[in-house]
Amino acid sequence: MNEKIWLSSPHMSGNEQSYVKEAFDTNWVAPLGPNVNNFENDLKSYLKEDCHVAALASGTSALHLSLILLGVSHGDEVICQSKTFSASANPIVYQGATPVFVDSERDTWNMCPIQLEIAIKDRIEKGNKPKAIIAVHLYGMPYKVTEINDIASKYNIPVVEDSAESLGSTYKGKNCGTFGEFSILSFNGNKIITTSGGGALVSKTLENKQKAVFLATQARDNAPHYLHSQIGYNYRMSNIVAGIGRGQMTILDSHVAKRRSNHEFYVNSFKENDKITFLKEPEGYFSNRWLSCILLDSESTREGLRLALEKENIESRPLWKPMHQQPVFKDSPSYLNGVSDELFEKGLCLPSGSNLTDAELDRVVSAINTYFVTC
Ligand SMILES: *Cc1c(COP(=O)(O)O)cnc(C)c1O
């Protein structure tokens, strides 16, 4: 059996262990310490915009805190892009609120501004104005930032930017992770950089960062004894994990370059194949190409190809199944145009890691070519 080729696996720089060792040597084995502060500063300088970064245990916890800080609570509604990973929507339910799903458009596969406005108007008419909008830069492709922000400000609803898959992507020259009232990053094992598990909340104000850190460290009031006037969470990133993050920051740009070159390689390899199409970058959009995705001509071609790759020990995965199709969200309102359903039927994510070798990429391409010769 050929060795397994993964969709997206961790890729260390070699610098991580020295930061982790430093944490051990200085006994900062805690959810605070120099690595946490320095990792936050590294992220802040990378993002460039005026923003404040809190390193947390996961992207999901960052989303949860952003909703808490926006005052989302029981009985509220929060709009969420339907085509996303479930972690974008779950924190809405943690708050006792209801997700309202909005479909995608074809240029970026992300939240459709037209459906968004239809949804907002309809929810307001029904007497429950949405408390927030969670928009996602899926697979690293920025959403239509200007259009979404314009609608959000027209109705005065804050945007939570889910940038879990898009660190290193830019829109009109500015970094993804800086466009929301709050933005979130993820450093889970499969993301463009990883701390094994981790995330960050990016806030526009220092005050909000401080509130997030307060809530993330059990909401301990200032007193010599343990004193609590609010419910807290254990959501802070540990100083060990932040050391991995500092090492990863040194190679983030090269990981982006490699993922983009993987994508280029697939585009060039399949340009003669009229059954395979790719999502192009619109003018002004720069995707980190976290995952290289293809669209096939039908669901049966997509499934046939996925199984053929599996036989060759190559991991691939259908594009994320939209939230409005998930059994757990079957009762949530949704505003649909058919785009995310079609993308789910026809789309496949190919191996995309920054550690893929030329030989592995060749194996993927030849397995796909063989499938199309024999199918
Ligand atoms: C990975 C991911 C998250 C969650 O991040 P974790 O760090 O795994 O909690 C949220 N949204 C999207 C779109 C993701 O891909």
TrEMBL record:
InterPro entries: DegT/StrS_aminotransferase, PyrdxlP-dep_Trfase, PyrdxlP-dep_Trfase_major, PyrdxlP-dep_Trfase_small
The entry's keywords: Pyridoxal phosphate
Example GO molecular function: pyridoxal phosphate binding
GO biological process: polysaccharide biosynthetic process
Active-site residue numbers: K191 (proton acceptor)
Keyword Kinase carried by entry: no
Keyword Transferase: no
Cited Gene3D superfamilies: Aspartate Aminotransferase, domain 1, Type I PLP-dependent aspartate aminotransferase-like (Major domain)
Matches recorded under Pfam families: DegT_DnrJ_EryC1 (PF01041)
N6-(pyridoxal phosphate)lysine PTM positions: K191
Membership in a protein family: Belongs to the DegT/DnrJ/EryC1 family.
Record-given protein name: dTDP-4-amino-4,6-dideoxygalactose transaminase
Source organism: Winogradskyella eximia
